[in-house]
Amino acid sequence: MKLRLERRWPKSTYTIGVLFIDGIRFCETLEDKDRGLKQTDSKSYISSHKVYGETAIPRGEYSIVLNVLSPKYAVSSWYKQKTEGYMPRLLAVPGFDGILIHPGNTAVDTLGCILVGRNTQVGRLTQSKDIFAALYKKMKAAWDKGEGITIEIV
């Protein structure tokens, strides 16, 4: 499964994008501010330009796994029901740890992670839990079939 996140509307404190699954538009995304970081940048460059909790991850391509329990989300009954506590986790993101794809409404909810939903209000996502549940279901089906899951962020 190939996800592609196109960052389209950068603002001063957040970034709105569009998420595609295997070339088909699926939903909108919300991330922290895009500071122009790239996966190929040096660790020292990323560290010097990253503002903790306020910076989108570097553009690039990352593998995603669904086999890591999230300490934060594994205790929530909603997440247990929808994901058994497993969350989509991006691997080997330079300068960032624990980057997930999850529901949320504003940049305050991101901490570097990628939020999914509908961008029906300025600077916010709506229908985030429903969109996330649908995305997770598709990702889990691919994962269970042994397909690799990647995300390209452009």
Radius of gyration: 14 Å
Low-confidence stretches: none
Average pLDDT value?
95
- Percent in strands: 25-35%
In short:
This protein is α+β, with helices and mostly antiparallel strands. The protein is built from three helices and nine strands, in the order βββαβαββββαβ. Strand 1 (about 1-10) and strand 2 form a beta hairpin.
What are the key terms here?
globular, 9 strands, nine-stranded mixed β-sheet, alpha+beta, 3 helices, 154 residues
Which helices and strands occur, and which strands form pairs?
Elements: E1 2-10, E2 15-21, E3 24-31, H1 43-49, E4 60-65, H2 77-83, E5 89-90, E6 101-102, E7 114-121, E8 124-126, H3 128-144, E9 149-153
How would you describe what is shown here?
20% of the residues lie in helices and 32% in strands. It is α+β, with helices and mostly antiparallel strands and 154 residues long. The protein has one domain. It is globular, with a radius of gyration of 14 Å.
